[in-house]
Design brief:
The protein has three helices and seven strands, in the order αββββαββαβ. With 145 residues, the protein is of the alpha+beta class. The relative contact order is 0.24.
Length: 145
């Protein structure tokens, strides 16, 4: 379990899988894993609508240094949208603190009111803050000795 938690804490991008109306949707997100929760944010869209309708989700993260040196973790959990301004700001602070010193792409959606100099592409976009409570975790690790 420690290896899984370590991998989840080290990475910044993972893939969230959601299911609703006979559709499976998998998409990458930036995230922070902290205290048994995956924290993220997104624009209003298909992923958020699906998770609101069916909060049971799957989250995957991996790293690969070669075909014989990789790690992968899967988390099953429940989506929870942050409703209060205090909760939203807490999530944005967690994310900002973790990614502020990292290079970001021009199209990466950042919460414009929590990070300085947001990209104009994201101006006026309402960010949805959420977390996923990790209910079950598994992982696979292969390392050449």
């Amino acid at each position: 379990m420690e290896e899984i938690d370590s991998l989840l804490q080290q990475q910044l991008v993972g893939r969230i899988g959601c299911y609703n109306d006979d559709k499976i949707f998998v998409v990458p997100i930036t995230y922070v894993y902290q205290d048994g929760y995956i924290y993220g944010h997104s624009r209003e869209g298909q992923k958020i609508h699906m998770m609101r309708d069916n909060p049971k989700v799957c989250f995957e993260v991996d790293t690969m240094d070669g075909l014989n040196n990789w790690q992968s973790a899967i988390v099953w959990g429940e989506f929870e949208e942050m409703d209060t301004e205090d909760d939203k700001m807490n999530v944005f602070k967690i994310l900002t603190d973790r990614i502020a010193d990292r290079d970001a792409s021009e199209t990466m959606m950042r919460p414009s009111y929590s990070l300085p100099n947001p990209h104009p592409h994201n101006a006026g976009v309402k960010a949805i803050a959420f977390r996923i409570k990790a209910m079950e975790k598994t992982g696979r690790f292969e390392k050449k000795y």
